[in-house]
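Case study 2.
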Amino acid sequence: MSFTEFLANLIIPLNLSVTLLVVATLLLIVRWRKTASLLVALAIAWITFWSVPSSSLWAGGMLEQRYPHQAADALPVSQAIVVLGGNTLGGRRNWFEPYNGKTAILRTDTAAQLYHAGRAPLIIVSGAALDGGRSEASAMAAALEHNGVPSTDIVEENHSLTTHQNAFYTAQILRKRGITHFLLVTSALHMPRAMASFQGQGLSPTAAASPPQIVVPDEPDFSFWLPDLHTLNASRSIVKEYLGMLVYWVRGWA
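Prediction:
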């Protein structure tokens, strides 16, 4: 595990809060009571903040609205559609509702809609095998074929393990094919970092985000301020996205 991966897992709300409480316990043993009390307060504040739906709606909403979702016919005709891997089997309609496969919208669904709307004649899918098995690109290609996209119009990029690598390896394919105008498909939450990564490769993509997922659900008893375990678990993606943007900026990748 790289340091960046370790940091990403550490900063997850539940993990960080537990870590702070463990450190606070050790400090109490050596009688550093004031520092221990501060760490306990920070742990409680951190986990409470991310347990409240209003926090995710605010922090996640800011990222999702950087490049708002648009209908396929509102986007320009381009030379290609680039689809990034990463949680491609998720696509839940709303973070605050139970997962429902019947209403889920995958990134490949968004790409297929763009293709059938005549936005581009070619789809490039990007993503390696994260677990050593089938690559995300291969899985996305199969999903696109299931959605009526001919295999001859799909190109696989099977080497990238990160968003930075998505941009790096896909840029090579785009340049070899002389493609300068393309639509970039990923989740609305991930789009700011994805756009910055491709722009860092000297490319100028047009954002074609999947529908936002961090939105107020259509439930009469939904509470903005009531802590919720599901909200806490889902918030890890928001936290990791902000951390990823910071790391990419520090490394000069975005």
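The longest strand covers residues 80-84.
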